[in-house]
Amino acid sequence: MVSGNTPLPSAASAASAAVNQTWSTSAGNVNRPLPFRAVLFDFGQTLFQAPDAAALLTEAGVEPATAQRLWAEIWARALTPEELAKGRDLSEAAHRRHWMELFAAAEPHAPGISRRLYEAVMRVESWTPFPDTPAVLAALHEGGVAVGVLSNTAMALQPVLAVHGLDRYVSACVESFRLGIEKPDPRIFAAACEALGSKPEETLLVGDSHLADGAGVLAGLTVLLLPGVPRDTPRGLEAVLDLLQIRRPAPSQATPRNLRFRGDPA
Question: At what angle do helices 92-103 and 64-78 cross, to 10 degrees?
Answer without folding.
Answer: 140
